[in-house]
Amino acid sequence: MAEDELTQTGIRVGRWLPAVPAEPGREPQPPAAPRRLPAGPDDGAAPGSADPDRAAPATDPPSASTGPSVPADGSAELPGAPSVDPDPARHSARESVAERLAELVRPAAAKVRVAVGAAPDGPATRVGVARARRRRRRAVLGAAAVAALALAALAYVGRGPRADDEPTVAAALPTVAASVPAPAPPPTVVPVTGNPAFPGGPLLSVDQQHVPALVDLTALGGRDWIHWGGLGGGSVQRKQTGTGEIVDPGGARLEHAASVSAFAWADGTPVARQEGTRYGVFQRGAGKAFSLSVAGSGDLRTVRLFVGAFGAGARLDVRLSSGGDPAVREVALAADDRFYEYVIHFRAARGAKLLITWRALTVVGGANDGVAMEALAVS
Fold first, then answer.
1. Helix (H) or strand (E) segment spanning residue 143
2. pLDDT profile of the chain (379 residues), mean per 10
3. This model's pTM is above 0.85
4. Residue 281: closest CA among 251, 311, 303, 304
5. Residue 337 and residue 258 in contact, taking contact as beta carbons nearer than 8 Å
6. Could you give phi then psi for residue 77, rounded to 5 degrees?
7. Which H or E run contains 130?
8. How many Å apart are CA 269 and CA 217, to the nearest integer?
9. Which end of the chain is more exposed for a tag (fewer CB within 10 A), N or C?
């Protein structure tokens, strides 16, 4: 083949010869830029784009003829010439080794960024980038919250015991006196004889209290107690281990079972135990009386006396045998039955006595009108 023919057809003989345009007035086209392989997920263009520089060249199927293969641009390969890859674009590599390594590492790095939420899972779209930013923001806010909680916990723990194991002592608040009403003072004990400033002098006072529904003589009579009735007008129950301070001269008496209080004890004789009895004794008629005495010991004593009036007016006289003015309490005449508890505080020298008299002044006129007596306890 002549050299001009080779020049016209562009057949390679030892090297590629530039094709000579057939028409002298036509300018030659610039050589095509080297083509690139499809890029990874970090490349600027999305997969499937129509960029001609990124598309892989289409190769024609091999011809069935036995002659030399002719490329699509009209060039032909001479027999005996060295074999050349028909797709030279696949050999257009990166310009440096660093870029080739980056090309290999980029897909793995992209997967890592997707896994940790730094990059969207899929094409790099605006929505994916916004989601990644939101994830990063949430992660930063969560870390800040955890740090704040840790600081608060450290501050709370820091208020505990000091490093030298000395307990922290709270600051003492100023004490303010509470406005609590003062308890009622005990009944005034008025000296009847001697110097009032002398603490060992004789004392005597009488107060009246409401009659309780149940009277426990064992609890009230720590030193001695006595109860009348229950086994007849002449029956008497006493404290089994009493001191014997109560003296009853006795006399003619009648029994009744009309007391408003139930009397109980657990240390009596001859009846050792009683859950609650309403028996007592009484005397009929005006001027009838009960007389008792309690021995003094020089100490302050408390006597509780339980008495009644049946359709009568009555009077209580209490005095010390050592002298002095008596303490007197009276109840008016009435037709019904009434019961009273008198609390007597006294102090008498050893050998002296507290003298008690409960007397009927007037009566209404009934068959059983008079004065009654149930029990007495000393503590």
1. helix 126-158
2. 48 50 54 51 44 44 44 47 48 59 72 59 68 84 88 73 48 42 45 44 89 94 94 92 92 92 95 94 94 93 96 95 91 93 94 95 90 95
3. no
4. 251
5. yes
6. -105, 130
7. helix 126-158
8. 13
9. N
CB 377 within 8 A of CB 221: yes
Angstrom distances, CA of residue 282 to CA of 101, 259, 312, 375:
127, 11, 12, 12
Peptide bond into 18 cis (omega under 30): no
The torsion defined by the Cα of 198, 200, 204 and 210, in degrees rounded to 10, comes to 110
- Contact between 333 and 312 under an 8 Å Cβ cutoff? The reply is yes
Structure tokens that stand for 234 in this block = 């002449």
Cβ count within 10 A of residue 339: 17
Residue 177, both tokens: 């006196």
Supply the DSSP symbol for 224: E
**Cβ(317)–Cβ(360) under 8 Å?**
no
Pull the structure tokens for residue 94: 């990166």
250 dihedral zone (left: phi>0; alpha: psi -120 to 50; beta)? left
Query: What Rg do the C-alpha atoms of the chain give, in angstroms?
Result: 64
For tokens 């060295």, name the residue.
82
Contact 202, 320 (CB under 8 A): yes
Assess contact for 120 and 114: CB atoms under 8 A.
Answer: yes
3-state SS assignment for residue 378: strand
Beta bridge partners of 284: 370
Do the bridges between strand 254-256 and strand 224-228 make them parallel or antiparallel, or are there none, so unpaired?
Answer: unpaired
In whole angstroms, how far apart are CA 118 and each of 39, 105, 121, 130, 358?
Answer: 20, 17, 10, 10, 107
